[in-house]
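Hi both,

Apologies for the delay on this - the queue was longer than expected. I finally got the magnesium ion-bound model through. Below you'll find the protein sequence and the ligand SMILES exactly as submitted, and right after that the structure tokens for the full complex including the ligand.
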Amino acid sequence: MSLITIERKVLEKNDAIAANIREGLKDKNIFSFNILSSPGSGKTSIVEKTIEYLKDRIKIAVIEGDVQTDLDAQRINMLEVSVTQIVTNGGCHLEAGLVRDALNSLNLNDIQLLIIENVGNLVCPAAYDLGEDTKVVVLSTTEGDDKPLKYPAMFRNASVLIINKIDLLPYVNCSVEKIKNNALSINPHLRIFETSCTTGAGIEDWCEWIESNIYS
Ligand SMILES: Nc1nc2c(ncn2[C@@H]2O[C@H](COP(=O)(O)OP(=O)(O)OP(=O)(O)O)[C@@H](O)[C@H]2O)c(=O)[nH]1
Ligand SMILES: [Mg+2]
């Protein structure tokens, strides 16, 4: 059996589990997104800001994915929402089977929003459907405006792009216009937000978009 065939079988199995997860979340009226980026772009910081902004109005659960440690889950736990950590032990992406197991350890009753933070990696997680409604890719201004062209799959498969760390624009060689043009050349349907977790800029717009997607 060739490597390509094995990879296709792995993805087919993943997609079948993901379809099952999607159906289960839909039955419970839970809107979900999978947040992806390179290590350190600000995924957990955005999740923290999102929870702070929305948690009085919307009941939220979080699945954290990491290669090692439960540090991100500890951060989310401080905000008193339901959270579980998947440690992949070296694996560079989450798979639907891991998310299914994590969902079994969460109390999903009355939850309206499920956030899945993927392992920090701009390549591998793009290929894996986790049963989420939407993929949200984060690119921070310190990473360079060429990244959508160099890592197109992530931007092609996402429906939202968050350009984070805009507070650092005066100090870095990065053009937000170039990020947008490059990303839109890969995926013209991307909804784009500009945020800073340091100043709070853009968080309200992003959270209003989430609220507009919550199932009533
Ligand atoms: N200046 C600035 N720093 C930020 C911003 N957002 C996050 N950071 C910092 O960037 C670093 C990484 O943030 P995290 O939220 O841990 O990033 P992450 O994408 O979750 O990282 P991994 O889970 O390890 O992939 C931390 O030191 C944050 O305080 C921002 O908007 N502006
Ligand atoms: Mg994180």
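Main takeaway for now: The pocket of guanosine-5'-triphosphate (ligand 1) is lined by residues 37, 39-45, 72, 120, 164-165, 167-168, 196-198 (CB under 6 Å).

I'll put the files on the shared drive as well.

H.
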